[in-house]
Amino acid sequence: MLREICVENFTDIPRMIEAGANRIELNNDLGAGGTTPSFGVIKQSIKYAHQHQIPVVVMIRPRGGNFVYNDDEFTIMKQDLQVAAILGADGVALGCLTADKQLDKVKMTELCAMARLLKLDLVLHMAFDELSEDQQLELIPWLVEHDVTRILTHGGPLGTDILDNSVRLKKLISATDGKIEILPGGGITVENYERIALELGVTQVHGTKIVSMN
């Protein structure tokens, strides 16, 4: 079972790796839902994680709040994506929506092309969960076509129990036909991840409490 730890800053990374984390999603400001970490944090985190053969996915998000970005914010995202690649990231997590709650295919097409060129995995983060179930299912072929590696999803609003969303998550997993990974996250802990993974039939899970830090 691959356990991806969602982490803020560098501080706890050594202990998290020691506790069994298999992949890191690196953020700043998890209180705001995760934003792009600093150059120094990215560089040191990747250096340490790679010494322990642990891949790092860097959050590319210029601010908290919604996922509708203006031109300046989009430029920042593109520059941060390049920085993550230069510093050796294995992947980036990002997502852009339009004001009417659709995936912003114009911006996402450009970001997907950049990630592909820079040989980065691209993760569509929980912006995906703001889309309707029909939209999500319709989008999967588009995401496959644009080389999105995986979708991080709770299967519903973040305040809900992820097991209550298992029907929707199973539909998504089935619709991917193995062409794109579904990474369940949100409310998954060291106590329940095995049960959730078994219920959904997945081999990777994501969370801030996915390993025991005792």
TrEMBL record:
<dbReference type="InterPro" id="IPR005627">
    <property type="entry name" value="CutC-like"/>
</dbReference>
<dbReference type="GO" id="GO:0005507">
    <property type="term" value="F:copper ion binding"/>
</dbReference>
<dbReference type="GO" id="GO:0005737">
    <property type="term" value="C:cytoplasm"/>
</dbReference>
<comment type="similarity">
    <text>Belongs to the CutC family.</text>
</comment>
<dbReference type="InterPro" id="IPR036822">
    <property type="entry name" value="CutC-like_dom_sf"/>
</dbReference>
<dbReference type="Pfam" id="PF03932">
    <property type="entry name" value="CutC"/>
</dbReference>
<keyword id="KW-0963">Cytoplasm</keyword>
<protein>
    <recommendedName>
        <fullName>PF03932 family protein CutC</fullName>
    </recommendedName>
</protein>
